[in-house]
Amino acid sequence: METPSLSRSNGLVRDTPLTRPNISSKRNFPEIFFRFTLFLSGIVVLLLISAILLTLILNALPSIKAFGLEFLSSSTWDPVSGKFGSLAFIVGTLLTSFLALIISIPFSLAISIFLGEYYKKGGLPSTLGSTIELLSGIPSIIYGFWGLLILAPIVRAMEMKLGIVPYGVGIFTASIILAIMIIPYSASLGRDVINLVPSELKEGAYALGATRFEVIKKIVVPYARSGIIAGFLLSLGRALGETMAVTMVIGNANFFTLNIFSPANTMASIIANEFTEATGKLYLSSLIEIGLVLFLITAVINFTGKWIINRLDIRGSKK
Amino acid sequence: MKNLKFRIMIDKFFIILIAILTFAIIVPLFAILFYVVKQGVSVINWEFFVSLPAPIGVKGGGISNAIVGTLILIFLSAIISIPLGITAGIFLSEYNSSRLSNYVRLSTEILQGIPSIVMGIIAYIWIVKPIGRFSALSGAVALGIMMLPLVVKSTEENLRLIPQSLREASLALGVPYYRTILKVVLPASLSGILTGILIGIARVAGETAPLLFTAFGSPYMNVNILKPINSLPLLIFNYASSPYHEWQRIAWGASFVLIVFVLILSLMTKGLTRKWKTEF
Amino acid sequence: MNNFLKISLLVTGFFTGINLFAGSMKIELLGAGATFPYPLYSRMFDVYAKETGVRVNYQAIGSGGGIRQLLSKTVDFGGTDAFMFEKEMKEADGKILHIPTCLGAVVVTYNLPGKPELRFTPDIIADIFLGKIKWWNDRRIQAINPDVKLPHQKIVVVHRSDGSGTTFIFTDYLSKVSQEWKKRVGRGKSLNWPVGIGGKGNPGVAGLVKQMMGAIGYVELIYAMGNDMPVGIVRNKSGNYIKPSIESVSYAANVKLPADTRVSLTDTDAKMGYPISSFTWLILYKEQNYKNRSRERAEELLKMISWMIHNGQIYTKPLHYAPLPEAAVKRGEEILRTVTFDGNPLLK
């Protein structure tokens, strides 16, 4: 029997003992049981996700049947008359998440470049890296709590100076909190990608007389562009699904607004607020439909981000 | 061709800008930790840890049931997610390119991205409604499903890092395949897997949204998993939005405890990696 | 690896044992609902547990939540300040009973420098919450408060973000005194508010009003008093400006009670009655044998409710709730006597 190669997959079935055809121990019981359990666990995971999707769809059906596509375009959320439309929340979610992303971009990019290019090794970067990871470890409820009691008054004071109604809570405050929360995600991914830029490319540019900044601007970032974007997409996905921190500082107002200093509601926060008390099948079903929409949006965004990363992996190894 | 001096100036300016932006992130982190520590430390005393929450207007009260509740929830969700997660991770790493494993990997990715509030909805429909009552179990199911993808990925990645040579050496010695995996490969990657589990626990310990309509909360100490249970994040949520000064103080104290807990888990992760990691 | 397995099996076994054992211990009653009476209930249940050993876990998630959870049969009883409508009760799988537990006042509270005591007329309140009156020094508000120099401050409306009985009481009142309110918004636990931001629960609203200068909101009396916040003096149907208090709320309750106690006390005819007063109720199923409930559990539930409307009433006044009038207690007793288990009345 040939010894199998140690190389990575050549695209076909990977050469593991399990997939090699003539293993003699195949006939003995523990072996079969083991392989069976492995398969089973894989299937369970698949079933799990299908069950979740199915549950959401089934329970959202009454609302889907009642409102159809209008559910997504109407901003009326009226439990009294039984008319439900989720536009206000979709807009609230998109506004807060994209605003958070925009706020986070300069910081996240800076960190990626700082740790991926300037200071790659040593005590300082590692401490800094750990500190930033710590940021991602803080539970979201504490972000919300801090946001409500410390950040909101600051925003309130700022609004008073600007002559805006001093709610303190609202889309702006929520976006700031979200931005702080998502920076570690895109920063760590960006740092990894920037680290991987081949030195030959950079050295070639230096040899031609480029300054460090120019190398970063014209070589490093463009090369790592997809990875950086993937990192941002992941951050976005995180922001879209965030519930607690947002619920506490968003102001809980169920109307459609594009004013970032106004209170609003996101898909996640409306569910958190009203789920336990939705009386009436249609009300509950509408909330679940919002959950479904949220699930689909985050799934698509996360999936796109991961797909880009995967493509990068293959590209990276094709050297 | 731009002036050389100008370009060098931009270069210097740039690194200063980058440094400022990078260290700027420390400001909110410091602010948050500072406030939590400052407000929280003053509340911490022995009574805080061992007494139950007191009704409004009655002085004192503590977070004992929330601490116990959090621990119970973590324990239960670990039971739910670890066996399945590790097994699925092994499956993914060994059956690397089969069609099924691609779908499973996709499912894991999707699971990881599910918003926590949607998980709460699922657990409510699957567990709370049939049983007819809020329970720690339903909360643990929600948390367990959230923890699952982290365990799966961690297992898969760490198993992949083990070189084939180890597996082959074991097989060459006549060890059957399943034992090779269970007794040779898995233990070798244990530190990495445990790291993933600890990260999962840290994530899940701080979750509130899925517990809102599953674990429900309780003012009493409870170890019965079929009954409602309190947890640190739930308590913080309930108390933080109240106007009572007493309650807000307790919320800060609970936040402090929670952050310390997450920090300890973080440090354990680092310690594990250093101590147990098998190098190849 | 083996050791690890052994230990985890042991711990799991230990745990299961505890749970099975714990499950056979004292009954713990589950309730959910209104935040309106929450300070009173948490006190009452604390005392009740000390006196009888029976624990009551009441989560204040809003009246809407209480009703929903009772309909889903996930709790033993619900708490609500909005009595259920016929339509809602039809959705229930069984007849639902309402038992009043105390009286309270929904007050208008606000945040202004100096914490002045302001007078309000019904139409002013309605117009503020409709967004028609936007500034504190509006002519109309100033007119009835000649001694107070009102600042040129924007009014920030705070309402409930969750399904609330307090909201129901407040909007029930507004629908009676303002035609425009009735048409545009109506009454209910969750509404399409024209303006304002939402706070979670009575505590949430109080919290937000307390933090924002110029804010105005509606909360149960104890939440304003407990936070040292000013309370509005409201003009009632008879034209008198009434301060919310135990007495003025009790006056408002001087009405004929229907047999099922579902009655609204707002916009009272009583001359010295506070116009935004209300009962708050516990709701439970008439037939207690559902979903494997034990007879013992049903009995404990009734005992607890009975205690609340009798011995528990002494805790109302210190917390600024008004105790139940005699007539209400009697009705409550009558209703409790109709609760059955398998068709047979539980209380002798």
From TrEMBL, chain A:
Q: What is its main location?
A: membrane
Output the InterPro entries linked to this UniProt entry.
MetI-like (IPR000515), MetI-like_sf (IPR035906), Phosphate_PstC (IPR011864), Phosphate_Transport_Permease (IPR051124)
Give the membrane topology: Multi-pass membrane protein
What is an example of a GO molecular function annotated in this UniProt entry? phosphate transmembrane transporter activity
Indicate the segments forming the ABC transmembrane type-1 domain, all copies: 90-305
Gene Ontology BP annotations: phosphate ion transport
Pfam families, per database record: BPD_transp_1
Entries under Gene3D superfamilies matching the protein: MetI-like (1.10.3720.10)
Q: Where are the transmembrane segments?
A: 32-58, 87-114, 134-155, 167-187, 253-272, 284-309
Q: Does the keyword Transport apply?
A: yes
A GO CC term assigned to this protein in UniProt: plasma membrane
The cellular location(s) given in this protein's UniProt record come to: Cell membrane
Please provide the record's keywords in A-Z order.
Answer: Cell membrane, Membrane, Phosphate transport, Transmembrane, Transmembrane helix, Transport
Its biological purpose is as follows:
Part of the binding-protein-dependent transport system for phosphate; probably responsible for the translocation of the substrate across the membrane.
What family does this chain come from, according to its entry? Belongs to the binding-protein-dependent transport system permease family. CysTW subfamily.
PANTHER family named among the record's database cross-references: PHOSPHATE TRANSPORT SYSTEM PERMEASE PROTEIN PST, PHOSPHATE TRANSPORT SYSTEM PERMEASE PROTEIN PSTC
In Swiss-Prot or TrEMBL terms, this protein is called Phosphate transport system permease protein
Could you tell me which species this protein originates from? candidate division WOR-3 bacterium
Automatic annotation (TrEMBL), chain B:
Per the record, its GO cellular-component terms are: plasma membrane
- What is the annotated localization of this protein? Cell membrane
Asked whether the keyword Transmembrane is assigned, the reply is: yes
Transmembrane regions: 12-37, 66-92, 104-127, 133-152, 184-205, 250-268
Write one Gene Ontology MF term: phosphate transmembrane transporter activity
Membrane-related topology note: Multi-pass membrane protein
Which GO terms are recorded in the biological process aspect for this UniProt protein? phosphate ion transmembrane transport
The question of whether Transmembrane is a record keyword is answered with yes
**What are the UniProt keywords, alphabetically?**
Cell membrane, Membrane, Phosphate transport, Transmembrane, Transmembrane helix, Transport
Concerning CDD domains, the annotation shows: TM_PBP2
SUPFAM superfamilies hit by this protein:
MetI-like
The record, for InterPro entries, names: MetI-like, MetI-like_sf, Phosphate_PstA, Phosphate_transprt_permease
Domain named ABC transmembrane type-1 is located at 67-269
Q: Which Pfam families match?
A: BPD_transp_1
The record's similarity note reads: Belongs to the binding-protein-dependent transport system permease family. CysTW subfamily.
Q: What is this protein called?
A: Phosphate transport system permease protein PstA
Organism this protein belongs to:
candidate division WOR-3 bacterium
Q: Which gene encodes it?
A: pstA
